[in-house]
Design goal:
Blueprint lengths: L3 E10 L6 E6 L4 E4 L2 E4 L2 H7 L2 H11 L5 H13 L1 H4 L5 E4 L2 H10 L3 E4 L5 E3 L4 E4 L12 H17 L10 H9 L12 E3 L3 E2 L8 E9 L13 H4 L3 E6 L4 E12 L19 H25 L5 H12 L1 H7 L3 E5 L6 H4 L7 E7 L6 E6 L4 E6 L13 E8 L8 H8 L4 H38 L3 H18 L8 H12 L5 H18 L4 H16 L3
Antiparallel strand pairs: 1-13, 1-18, 2-8, 3-4, 4-5, 6-7, 9-13, 10-13, 11-12, 11-17, 14-18, 15-16
Length: 544
């Protein structure tokens, strides 16, 4: 028998995913222009700034370290964004509403407190978990494993409440039947970090996370906003975009040790799952949540209607069949996954703040089985429609030694969702194509220039002089410049004398060029014309 059961995981994003990593895009290290965020390294920025710019920046950063100084640094780099864009180390798509949000706030104050204190715009953008080598997103194996662990625990709990004052660890130990690490059944389940596979090589976009109330207001109820919405709370998050087909690839490996029987050092025999059982547990836990969430959010008109329609159609189609057969499974990971997705049915107790108690003046609260609001991915902080939930993944399973299963139907479903990210990728490909064409043309022109320079370098001195004059003439013709007393006319006048001692072939070439130049500049009056023609004729004859 096999000791290890290994499966490749082909992971598609159904909705935006943000997995925090503790790092930000700092507004003093990026600029936004048109539809793109450009992050730059300080050393590279210094290299492209002028000496005067560097002096100005030094003056700013040596001033007192406060919000005003940070505001000036933001404005300094934004004003010089055209010099910084070419040296960007990373580019991230930005929607038009976020671009407007940034332009309105960069280097400025957003509001004034009641005491007159100004508040600096906070433009830090929280990064999603990424590969430090190339900057593309990564789905950590720990996040995937944590989501699977929750589903398995929920399946074992079967909706029962906590036993007394049981804490989370005690609950897990009871359900998984362990009191030592080596008995934890998840020790047999290994998940690699899922690597980014998108050929576009970007993999992320920027989104607002906004809070919206779940419950529809009753007639006459003026409190139609959640508490976070009333306080205008929002977050700027980098996310892996929605609707990206098989954008990550990972590996799930399960140890098969059913033939071993030592409950003191190994997980209990009934808890040694195989891949199919893990997929079944995830679908049992997450699929009803996705379906319920779509229904509830549609009732409040929050959802992007096209997205909701496509997901529901796919769940009823071949995707639903694959989920039923546990050939694929749903997961929810990352920030704003919602309390329902990270806690167990029956155990869930979400602390809800009810406001200050009029008698005590203290904040009152109660525990409920469901939250009162959602954090949703939005294009603008004011959006109330066209939004998406966070964190939904589709994970397809297939053996490591077999070809990837056909996913054309799911790929077409996801491709049917028109997103800002997909539009940016199309524009980026066109920009890259144009850049490649421009660079190829530049290289051809440089090769021609170098070849001409090599040929010119091998010419006799007289021919080099004629070639220089010819080049000046062509430059003036190109810009339609006529200067009868300019550099061409003056240089030609000198050469008509110097050229008398040249070889016959070079004298003839110079004579023909002189006729062309005077024909372009104007021969002058009758007397001037006769003098110039005489000089050209004398040039052809040479010095006697």
């Amino acid at each position: 028998m096999k000791f290890l059961e290994a499966s490749q995981l082909l992971i598609s994003t159904l909705s935006p995913v943000h997995i925090g990593c503790g790092e930000d895009y700092d507004p003093t290290r990026y600029v936004i222009e048109n539809d793109t965020l450009y992050e730059f390294e300080p050393g590279a920025a210094m290299a492209v700034l002028t000496a005067h710019d560097r002096e100005q920046l030094l003056k700013i950063v040596t001033s007192p370290a406060n919000d005003r100084m940070l505001q000036q640094v933001q404005a300094f780099f934004y004003q010089r964004r055209q010099a910084l864009i070419p040296i960007a180390s990373r580019r991230v798509p930005v929607g038009p509403k976020m671009v407007a949000f940034y332009q309105k706030r960069v280097g400025k104050t957003v509001q004034v407190e009641g005491d007159g204190a100004q508040l600096l715009n906070r433009l830090e953008i929280e990064r999603t978990f990424f590969n430090p080598v190339n900057g593309v997103p990564v789905l950590p194996g720990s996040s995937l494993k944590g989501a699977i662990r929750t589903a398995l625990l929920d399946g074992l709990n079967e909706g029962r409440p906590l036993a007394g004052q049981e804490r989370s660890l005690a609950l897990q130990q009871r359900l998984f039947r362990y009191d030592r690490f080596e008995q934890d059944p998840m020790r047999l389940v290994h998940l690699m970090d899922a690597g980014f596979m998108d050929e576009a090589g970007v993999g992320s976009e920027l989104r607002f996370a906004v809070n919206r109330r779940r419950k529809a207001p009753k007639l006459g109820d003026s409190s139609i906003q959640s508490q976070a919405e009333q306080r205008n709370l929002y977050q700027l998050l980098e996310c892996v975009p929605a609707a990206r087909f098989r954008v990550f690839s990972g590996q799930l490996t399960v140890q098969q040790i059913d033939h071993l029987n030592d409950d003191r050092r190994l997980p209990a025999l009934p808890l040694r799952w195989n891949t199919q059982q893990i997929a079944a547990a995830c679908n049992r836990f997450y699929r009803p949540q996705l379906e319920a969430e779509i229904q509830q959010m549609r009732e409040r008109s929050y959802l992007d209607t096209q997205w909701a329609k496509l997901i529901e159609q796919s769940l009823r189609g071949s995707l639903g069949q694959r989920l039923d057969k546990n050939q694929a499974f749903l997961l929810r990971v990352g920030r704003h996954s919602g309390a329902e997705s990270v806690t167990l049915n029956g155990v869930r107790a979400i602390k809800i703040l009810l406001g200050k108690d009029s008698a005590t003046g203290k904040m009152s609260s109660e525990n409920r089985a469901a939250g009162t609001s959602w954090w949703l991915a939005a294009s603008n902080i004011q959006d109330r429609i066209g939004m998406l939930p966070f964190g939904w993944l589709l994970v397809e399973l297939h053996p490591m030694d077999q070809a990837q299963p056909d996913g054309r139907e799911m790929q077409e479903v996801l491709a049917g969702l028109s997103t800002e990210y997909a539009g940016w990728i199309d524009r980026e490909r066109e920009r890259m194509r144009q850049q490649a064409e421009t660079e190829a043309q530049r290289q051809v022109e440089e090769q021609v220039r170098q070849a001409a320079a090599s040929i010119e370098a091998a010419l006799p001195p007289e021919q080099k002089i004629i070639a220089d004059l010819q080049r000046w003439f062509e430059e003036d013709q190109g810009v339609k410049r006529k200067e009868p007393g300019g550099r061409i006319a003056n240089r030609l006048n000198e050469l008509l004398k110097e050229g008398l001692l040249w070889p016959a072939a070079e004298r003839e070439n110079l004579a023909k060029l002189a006729e062309a130049i005077y024909g372009y500049l104007d021969w002058g009056g009758s007397k001037k014309k006769q003098e110039r023609k005489a000089k050209i004729q004398q040039l052809r004859q040479g010095a006697s």
